[in-house]
Amino acid sequence: MDVNQFAELIQRLQSSDNDIRKKAEEQYEQIDGPTKVALLFECYNQFANSTDVRSTVLVFLRRVLSRDWDAIWEKLNAENKQGILSKVLEMIVHETDISIKKKIADLIAEIASNLIDDSGDMSWQGVLELMDHCLKSDDLTGNYIALLILRGCPIVFGSRLDHFLPSLKNVLIKCMATPDLQIKSTAVRAVIAFAVDNDEDKEVIKLMTSLVPNVLQVCTDTSDDDDSDGALGEFAELASSLPKCLNSHMNQVLQVSCWKQRKERDVPSKRYRSHLLLHGVCTKRTQEIRSRSSFSNSRDPSLLYDRDGR
């Protein structure tokens, strides 16, 4: 099968006609993993002028590597493995379309997540060099790419956390302060995923704790309409998984959550996110909340209602 035939197959895999799509899926599954990967990379190169084709190819690449990583990787020789790693880094450096860059970053994160060795070291030196460059860059797009990779692979730094933490903190503060809502929200998701996955490292917890006010400001600045993932929903995950990070910021956490409850009281589906945050905080830190008289005296009546507003 040549690259043009394979590109047609990819298009049929997305057909709205069930029969066409089913036959295409059967044909696609008959292609072995390494061959699929090679053909997908060829498609990316062949259709350099088509954003739609390249976007689709990247989705399929990430999907096949996520599903069949071990089976594919063990069949490749050292030269082919290095070729793939070098290619994806080259792709993200030279790509100019931000939507494509985002998908390449997701692909890099997927690959990186499989290349942490048993000792906790990142065996892919190239991705560490990319992260180092992006985190130290003055370019906001470069910073954004680093955060996308970190969001997808929170353990990307491996055993070299200490080296990356100072520049990471600077980038997180910078990106959470930018007017770009997408970058703000990505920074929140990245730092929370990073903290949750590295919760045994004291310096990571210290970093996350120091950035709680910044994260709360993003929660205030954004809404579910701005970002379907919801920064407040991500913060609820932090409250549930790492409540110790909130100890010194409890009043601010409660104030933001109550403000969100009031602001979105007429939209139960959106108001539920702030309810989740309150639930996480109250579950993990009930005794501490009770001791805060300032909060007890200013509770919002809306908290007495359930998620449906009853």
In short:
With 310 residues, the protein is mainly alpha-helical.
Describe this structure in words.
The protein has helices at 3-13, 18-29, 33-46, 51-73, 78-94, 98-113, 125-136, 140-152, 161-177, 181-197, 202-210, 212-221, 231-241, 250-263, 268-284, 286-290, 293-296. The chain is an all-alpha fold and 310 residues long. The protein has three domains: 1-97, no CATH class; 115-210; 217-310. Helix 14 (250-263) packs antiparallel against helix 15 (268-284). It is globular. The model has no long low-confidence stretch (mean pLDDT 85). It comes from Caenorhabditis brenneri (Nematode worm). Residues 292-302 have a biased composition (Low complexity). InterPro entries: ARM-like, ARM-type_fold, Importin-beta_N, Importin_beta, TPR_IPO4/5.
How many structural domains?
3
Q: What is the general shape?
A: globular
| Cα end-to-end separation | 60 Å
* Content of β-strand: under 5%
Main beta sheet: strand number and arrangement? none
What is the arithmetic mean of pLDDT? 85
Q: Report Rg.
A: 22 Å
Low-confidence stretches: none
User: How many individual β-strands?
Assistant: 0
Structural class: mainly alpha
Order of helices and strands: HHHHHHHHHHHHHHHHH
What is the helix tally?
Answer: 17
Percent helix, as a range, is over 70%
